[in-house]
Amino acid sequence: MTLAPTLAIIGGGQLARMMAQPAIALGLPLRLLAEGEGVSAAQVIPDQLVGDYRDLDTLKKVTEGCAVVTFDHEHVPTEHLHALEAAGVAVRPGPDALVHAQDKGVMRARLTELGIPCPRNAIVSSVAEVEAFGFPCVLKTTRGGYDGKGVWVVRDVVDVAEPLRVAEEAGVQVLAEELVDFRRELSAIVARSPSGQAAAYPVVHTYQENGVCKEVIAPAPDLSPELAVQGEQIALRIAGELGVVGILAVEMFETVDGRLLVNELAMRPHNTGHWTQDGAVTSQFENHLRAVMDLPLGSPAPRAKWSVMVNILGSTRENVGRLYDGYPHAMARDPHLRVHLYGKEMRPGRKVGHVNVYGDDLEECLERARHAADWFQGDLGNDSD
Amino acid sequence: MTLAPTLAIIGGGQLARMMAQPAIALGLPLRLLAEGEGVSAAQVIPDQLVGDYRDLDTLKKVTEGCAVVTFDHEHVPTEHLHALEAAGVAVRPGPDALVHAQDKGVMRARLTELGIPCPRNAIVSSVAEVEAFGFPCVLKTTRGGYDGKGVWVVRDVVDVAEPLRVAEEAGVQVLAEELVDFRRELSAIVARSPSGQAAAYPVVHTYQENGVCKEVIAPAPDLSPELAVQGEQIALRIAGELGVVGILAVEMFETVDGRLLVNELAMRPHNTGHWTQDGAVTSQFENHLRAVMDLPLGSPAPRAKWSVMVNILGSTRENVGRLYDGYPHAMARDPHLRVHLYGKEMRPGRKVGHVNVYGDDLEECLERARHAADWFQGDLGNDSD
Fold it and tell me: What biological process terms from GO does the record include (chains A, B) (predicted)?
């Protein structure tokens, strides 16, 4: 006997792992489809199946008896999502919304139709079309890219061959976008439930390193009140117009001339929202669960003046794999540090965890969070061991 | 391959369940010995064994390959704990400390020896000895009692027979204690690591109903600074003298004449510390894990002026078992409410969850938390369904 409806999660990465924490508190039973034995979320969710999310039978099996299915990633084929809906499982976010996070071409077309500010863009299929679009520009595969993969900055005709080849091999299109002269990158996260209730977290500043999110500051420092409101409104409008259920993350550029342009969409808890675990009344993970289960949303209000998140990335150094060694120093140095690890082995550049720090002094928060992340990464202090 | 040493937990109740949340964040692998299939913690810890904690072979099996073993309850026999230590597992808290939470006679003798203020007390074995101790008084079985069970207030000779009979049948002793004229009950919670580091949470006010904790206010309102410090010092001293590792909860009476007397000890996360999940920088559950793994402790500092915890107890009403029905109203009414449910079916008087509320206005926090708990219990509003 279960006391509450069961939620299926497709994908066993750290996002599913971090959904498990509020699911414990809310008394929500989870069932996991994991890519492999012992992956990040499979370590912490007992009711699990190991299998391939591209296989419809596997998806049907894992969602059997579940009221709702949600996702750790955007890679489940659209036709399978429709099949699950037909089988009576509530798919949240639904396939018609999710396609905008799966396909950048569809996303750009829809946002343009809605009048949401985006970088100038066009689908291109030849060197000549890219040349006509104009250099420099950014080429992206419409599907399958993440964390900087599937994205190229091209400045000349010779740069274009590889993106076209990769796209052709993958059977996807190429989207050309203007290279935006941005002041910085921002992210606006909202939660939206099927009944239409929505909650907006404050717009944050995100700092990327080699295409991977490295630091987040909440709220974005020195953001004009107009842009702060505009950022939240853009995210709320997209969530409503696209019928998103769950968390929607809208990555944006703040241009040097003070405009916001939408860069990417994600329809799941997002790296730029990890600060909410310790810095907001209700974390993005809890609000994702509440939204997909159609429970009232929790307050997205910040609990501190400043929150800082710094990712722990696998180091390229000798001490790779010795993550646990970093605990004593980082924790002893900073008893207020909040540590979040994913149960993943260190590999160069891999996201293996993050730290959150909150407080009244932004510079101090940044110093503390960066030091702790560096230490966990093995970039400090372990030479003499 | 595990990235960190594995921690075994004996007992699958809600305390083990709530340890699972910070274990996810800390990347600590857990292995659970559960009393039965699907009990509270077994719903959320994949690596588990179902078996009897009174059986040494079962204990050896579940702790095999684990660096440390800790507990959801105090009921594991002392001789088994010594056997596990001999087998090379770090038992935390250790048997020599834990006996003071298992046996109230041993606890009283030791605290008296240390000069820690306690109610006047004596081991009694006959009606005549209770009469000599004096009426009214409290009789307690030295072992096996909890949540008001194994405790009797006796006012006359005729009341004494039952406690003596229960104790004899259980093969335990009876402790007589003066009936303390108390203003209120308080609780002091500290965490202590094997290396001796300790952290004290602020002393809280606890309100019991029928021997069961119902409400906690942190910090205790109108507590004199002297008693607040004294309460923390008593708990720190006991933890140090007894060599406690992990969380120690010291339940105390504040007498009408302004003294603190120690009532009970618990060496595990405690109901009177649940407010720390949302009201402190580091929860008691996380600090219990850090302590038993000998990691540096996190800050026990409060994050709000006031935190209130109210237990959700199984109702005696018709709607028992419909806990999930309470979610929408309680969450919609109060987006700042923090809900913690244990995955337990409603039974009259059973602890099935709690709510935490924090804020600047104590009366408002109490009203919000009580309303939410009443609603979850089905004591409000569901009649018209």
Answer: 'de novo' IMP biosynthetic process
H or E element, residue A79: helix A78-86
Nearest chain A residue to B333 by CA distance is A296
B278 CB-contact burial (10 Å; exposed 0-12 / middle 13-18 / buried 19+): buried
pLDDT at position A146 is 65
CB atoms inside a 10 Å sphere around CB A158: 9
CATH topology of domain A182-384: D-amino Acid Aminotransferase; Chain A, domain 1 (3.30.470)
**B324·A4 Cβ contact <8 A:** yes
Write out pLDDT tens, residues B136-170.
999 999 988 666 678 999 999 999 999 999 999 99
Determine, for residues A338 and B25 on separate chains, whether the beta-carbon distance falls below 8 Å.
Answer: yes
Q: Are strands B174-178 and B182-192 parallel, antiparallel or unpaired?
A: unpaired
Contact B281 A336 (CB under 8 A): yes
Nearest to B46 among A43, A199, A282 (CB): A43
Sheet with A7-10: list strands edge to edge: A48-50, A30-34, A7-10, A68-71, A90-91
Report helix, strand and coil shares of chain B as percent, to nearest 5: 35, 25, 40
Q: What token pair was written down for B53? A: 């904690």
Q: What distance in Å separates residue A165's CA from the closest CA in chain B? A: 38
| B180 assigned to a ligand binding site | yes
Which run of H or E residues covers position B371?
helix B362-377
Beta-carbon pairs below 8 A across chains A and B: 130
* A137/B325: higher pLDDT: A137
Question: What whole-number percentage of chain A has pLDDT above 70?
Answer: 95
Residue-wise pLDDT tens digits, A19-51:
999 999 999 999 999 999 999 999 999 999 999
Check pLDDT > 80 for residue A129: yes
Whether residue B305 is annotated as binding a ligand: the answer is no
Query: Would you state the structure tokens that stand for residue A215, as one six-digit string?
Result: 């630091």
Output DSSP code: residue A93: S
Contacts of A132 (CB under 8 A, 6+ apart): none
Question: Hey, where are the domains in chain B?
Answer: 7-91, 120-178, 182-384
Question: pLDDT averaged over chain B?
Answer: 93
Question: How far off is chain B from A60, nearest CA to CA, in Å?
Answer: 22
Are residues A335 and B282, on separate chains, in Cβ contact within 8 Å? yes
Q: Which residue of B has its CA nearest to A22?
A: B21
Which residue is closest to B297 within chain A, CA to CA?
A335
Residue A110, judged by CB atoms within 10 A of its CB (0-12, 13-18, 19+), counts as middle
Task: State the DSSP code for A282.
Answer: S
Q: Is the peptide bond before A93 cis (omega within 30 degrees of 0)?
A: yes
Q: Is B298's CB within 8 Å of A331's CB?
A: yes
For B3, which of A17, A323, A331 is closest by C-beta distance?
A: A323
Which top CATH class is A120-178?
Answer: alpha beta
Fold of B7-91: Rossmann fold (3.40.50)
pLDDT, chain A, mean: 93
Nearest CA distance, B112 vs chain A (angstrom): 34
Do A319 and A325 meet the contact criterion of CB atoms below 8 Å apart? Answer: yes
Nearest by CB to A353, from B27, B324, B327: name it.
Answer: B27
* Interchain CB distance below 8 Å, B27 and A342: yes
pLDDT at B322: 62
> Do A4 and B353 make contact, defined as CB atoms within 8 angstroms?
no
